[in-house]
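Question (not urgent): is this output format expected?
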Amino acid sequence: MSKYDPLYRWLVAKSASGITSISTTFEQIEAVLGFKLPDSARTSTPWWANEKGNTRHVQCKSWIAAGFETRNLSLATGSVTFVRA
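Got this back:
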């Protein structure tokens, strides 16, 4: 279990509804998670990387396991799109 499991469950639910692309803000992700994203999520592009395989970044494990990848990241506007892989 990871503190990012709520994001995983949210993405799986969206996918089950037939949604293949989800444009969202960091604030919306925080509402799903129930806590604030770390500062590095707002300042560091690598935080949002789609790392497959053995990675220590638990956040990406949540969207990869749900079958999504991140795209269209904008640190300036605090937004990202999850797209079905």
